[in-house]
What we know:
Chain A is an alpha/beta fold and 394 residues long. Chain A has helices at 10-13, 16-25, 45-59, 73-84, 100-112, 127-135, 152-160, 184-197, 252-266, 271-282, 285-311, 337-346, 377-392, and strands at 31-32, 95-98, 118-123, 139-146, 149-150, 167-170, 200-204, 229-234, 246-249, 326-330, 349-350, 352-353, 367-371. The first copy, chain A, has an 8-stranded mixed beta sheet, with helices on both faces. A 3-stranded antiparallel beta sheet of chain A has the order 10-13-12.
Amino acid sequence: MDRGFFASRLKRMENKELSEFMSLIGRDDIISFAGGIPDEKIFPVKELKQLINKLINIKGHSLFQYSSTDGKKNLKEYLVNYLKGQEITVNENQILITTGSQQGLDLLAKLFLNPGDTVAVEDPGYVGGIGAINSYEARIMGIEVDENGLRIDILEKLLKEGEKIKFLYLVPDYSNPSGMTLSLKRRYKLLKLANRYNFYIIEDTPYRELSFYNKPLPALKSIDNNEKVIYLGSFSKYFMPGFRIGWICGPEKIIELLTTAKQNTDLASNTLGQELIAYAGQEGIIQEQIKKIRPYYRQKLVKMEEGLTKYFPECCSWKRPEGGFFFWVKLPTGIKSKKLLKQAIKNRVAFVTGNSFCSDYRRGDNYIRLSFSNNTLSEIDKGLSILGKVINNF
Amino acid sequence: MDRGFFASRLKRMENKELSEFMSLIGRDDIISFAGGIPDEKIFPVKELKQLINKLINIKGHSLFQYSSTDGKKNLKEYLVNYLKGQEITVNENQILITTGSQQGLDLLAKLFLNPGDTVAVEDPGYVGGIGAINSYEARIMGIEVDENGLRIDILEKLLKEGEKIKFLYLVPDYSNPSGMTLSLKRRYKLLKLANRYNFYIIEDTPYRELSFYNKPLPALKSIDNNEKVIYLGSFSKYFMPGFRIGWICGPEKIIELLTTAKQNTDLASNTLGQELIAYAGQEGIIQEQIKKIRPYYRQKLVKMEEGLTKYFPECCSWKRPEGGFFFWVKLPTGIKSKKLLKQAIKNRVAFVTGNSFCSDYRRGDNYIRLSFSNNTLSEIDKGLSILGKVINNF
Lengths: 394, 394
């Protein structure tokens, strides 16, 4: 097949790393720390079943009809109210319901990016975010992450030197893969930069409700006085991902343009999923679920940290995340994560190599991402004991 | 807001016509022939409710979890079998499940189109198809439609003159808005051209099962020996649209690339919708539904033709479609459809102006699209009697 026949974006779209590790997720014979998916055992299925039946009785046939492109009014009402709880005051016209927050990223990239435009991202950062940006042939500018999140000083230096960016994409709370959180001081600093250098901040918040110790820091959107923040929300990690419902909150004019983009992309999000989440929100089921999952995942986080301390050599390092699903572990000098993965799979343990998350492919060589979300406590212990041995014998 | 800040595709994405007529659909005080949506009164809601409860019992928590990007295996199995009934032999790797077939169009445009590439479309043709192509800044080449569908002779002439196209997008059965069907002779001719001039044919089939008189003609895909046809399917018009589940069937390598594109776009389609349709297919509910809707919509088509004959002036013309949802009506010379619409809305009847569907905006001035799908028989009669009066008094 002549690949010249396809759009030039193709060479930027393919991610062999991602496809490879996705294929590891479903295998029963492997303890996999690879996926970043929630543990389905905690989904409130009994409540969902009751709610679906109730909805079919109330809404009848319309539950299976098209809904409008911008999204169901009652779901937007719930979100307006939900955002109030985060000190964010918006109206329904500032919200667009999307097919998962991955679609939010795709639509933003579609709206903003010409080939060659620059986008700043966390380094390491979310693979799917980088994938969406790559699909529109933008130039990716990776900004290092440390214990306090994105290194705003590095970003500032680049901007001062004359770099122009369309937007910065980041996950400020319990980021994927680093697990790190952007400090409050840096949040304020970042907003100032966005104003001074005229770029948007795309604040992606999938793990925000998965705060295991303290309340999350104020959202960038809540302390933004200049309409520079576009906020992406997802129900996937703290409620359920199967319905593919997410949302974007931003300046009204941008939401209007994104709605047009969505119309050409998939017409509308699925109706039953929107109604179900709206009702679950109104009836307090989502809030109940958030209360339940925090201690549930915290236990797993604690177990993973115990295992790392117990089984991994001392020269490995990590910082305990305050929430989310991931540990970002630095390997002993000289061990390359890709080689380690091959050895680990032979011993029936899997993880994701650090490379996948870094703008410069080689930068992540010495790191691995371990997710604790979808394993039992004993699997976490067993998997880490095996992986510790593999590292020690490497 | 500085519009130069956005991607250059923005100026191609906006479609005021479409937004305007979408806003007419929901109004209760208007008899609207504008929408092309199915009549929800015919959805098999009782069966769907039973099936959802059964599925939750069988599948449990996994029904609310992410599914893989390519789609649920059992839905693909159903489709392989369904396609066999159309003399199309494919395997599961040749199918990608999409978020409605609109996403199929978006992904194909994403995969194939660089700005300036040429795509041939029906003129008049489906607005959403044109929208998807416009979003990737391709050049649209409208090819006239007559009583036997797309004018293959015009396409051939352009190709002979040296036009190069990446693909042709068309709805060969009961097209939107023309209602016309591509003749068998033209189908064979088109496949020959695709081979000789090396382009793909995107065969979109939303109305194919809505054949009210005779069996539909062989699908282009079923008589294609050279892997030139990419087939788009949708459950929206003959089963239900609310879950946003569609599918693409094409050469394995292309399906693989489209799957990568989908991963960056929305990760996966919703799980419950996929499972529900797969089970409904396996248990014969979809087939039952198809049997039920044919006479149901045919009645409406007949009513609309009666009304047109009875109330419209003789100088209006149309050809009765053999299936689908639409009449494409030529107005008396000198009446512009946009002016007529204003007058019609004052009298509480709506339709879509012909312009919206034509590559050259002015070409559709003299036409209107009337949909009979979502009105009762008496609404069809009443609406057409009003519209007839408006035209007569124009």
